[in-house]
Amino acid sequence: MSAAEAGGTGAVPGVDRPIRVLLVDDQHLVRTGFRVILEVEDDLEVVGEAADGERAVGMARALQPDVVLMDVEMPGMDGLEATRQITAPGSPGGPAVLILTTFDRDDYLFAALRAGASGFLLKNGTPEALIEAIRVLARGDGLLAPELTRRVIATFARPGGGTAAGGAAAGRAALGELTPREREVLVLLARGASNAEIAAELHLGEATVKTHVSRVLAKLDLRDRVQAVVFAYEHGVVRPGG
After folding, report:
1. pLDDT digits (tens, 9 = 90+) for 59-74
2. Number of domains into which the chain is organized
3. Do both 188 and 90 map to the same domain?
4. Could you give the angle at the alpha carbon of 195 between the alpha carbons of 99 and 106, nearest 5°?
5. 56 with 23: CB under 8 angstroms?
6. pTM beyond 0.90, yes or no
7. Of 129, 153, 177, at which residue does a domain stop?
8. Does residue 175 fall inside a structural domain?
């Protein structure tokens, strides 16, 4: 079966077909370890491996994986630039990128989120956490380890805590496109509410909430809920404890 046939049927990853995963790391032993962990799961399929960012971008386009496990520090094109190219505007339906790194550095974390990563985990986590993260991203959600979420909020909640002036202006303009209901949904997303919790809070059906979430992400040009959380704190829509 070709990549197009495997990825373009409209089948739901992890339900109607395995979740297709691309491994990107410059260390062969690390990629082998990830492959061993993932391939014992019936709903996961490793479709390729890349040792640098440039190769990862090409393979992501050719193989159409659902999730890319991306290292940061690699020779040539690093994982941050590769993530930026894989998730660039104009590539709807592309893979979600999960950053996996040994380096617990804020600059990597924030750069990865701005580049379009849907998740960020440290390599000292458990195999179970990695498997669950892949499944979460394949469903279209985003994921951060709890300790990383606290750091994101602490940094982005400060006035100007990560947004250049031009970016702030563009963000305000985008916020102006939201309806009052969509802004309420964004606030609840930023507080970590699920679709069911948003539905209960706003007295809406879950299908209606899902439509609102999709419209919020589209209007703000965001890929997933993690990006929505960052956007909301970065632009002052919500504040810690608010």
Report:
1. 999 999 999 999 999 9
2. 2
3. no
4. 25
5. no
6. no
7. 153
8. yes
Q: Residue 144 phi/psi, 5° resolution? A: -135, 145
Residue 179: phi and psi, rounded to 5, are -75, 165
Range of the domain at 228: 163-234
Is the separation of the CB atoms in 83 and 97 below 8 Å?
yes
Residue 158 belongs to a domain:
no
Least Cα distance to 12 among 140, 195, 146 occurs for: 140
Report which DSSP code applies to 52. Answer: S
Residue 22 confidence class, pLDDT cut points 50, 70, 90: very high
Q: What is the DSSP letter of 18?
A: P
Give me the DSSP letters along 172-234: HHHHTTS-HHHHHHHHHHHTT--HHHHHHHHT--HHHHHHHHHHHHHHTT--SHHHHHHHHHH
Confidence of residue 6 (pLDDT cuts 50, 70, 90): very low
Beta-strand (E) ranges in 2-86? 19-24, 44-50, 67-70
> pLDDT of 105-136, one tens digit each?
777 887 888 788 888 888 888 999 999 999 98
Residue 124 tokens read as: 């000292």
User: What is the distance, to the nearest Å, from the Cα of residue 192 to the centroid of all Cα atoms in its chain?
Assistant: 15
CB within 8 Å of 66: residues ≥ 6 apart: 7, 13, 19, 20, 21, 95, 96, 137, 138
Q: Two tokens at 127?
A: 């195999």
Residues 144 and 177 in one domain: no
Q: Which two tokens stand for residue 235?
A: 């632009």
What one-character DSSP code corresponds to residue 66?
S
